[in-house]
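QA checklist item 7 of 12: single-chain prediction sanity check.
[x] sequence parsed
[x] length recorded as 105
[x] structure emitted
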Amino acid sequence: MIAISLAYVASTGQCYLKTISIPTGTSLRGAIMRSGWLTAHQEEFAQLQVWLDATDDAQSPNHKAWQVGIFSQKKPLGYQLQAGDRVEIYRPLVLDPMKLRKQKL
């Protein structure tokens, strides 16, 4: 068994942080499923569940639409986690940062 952590910040600012023990060789997708967040917080993670189902067989991250990573590095869902990894769940951007910056000028 290895210990990993999972992190997510909701649009409301609520932080989700959890440390779990998983079997060696567990995939990134498997760790998200084992976290229990998808069932315990269905409303908050409904979009993530849809995304996971749609990208289950993707081999390489699409950097514009990818929603998970390890230490700010987007990884495929099949990536095998190592001890101490921090799984990060990203939410889609509400505003394009470039457009927002131009609006401020």
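[x] summary fact logged: The first strand starts at residue 2 and ends at 9.
[ ] second reviewer sign-off
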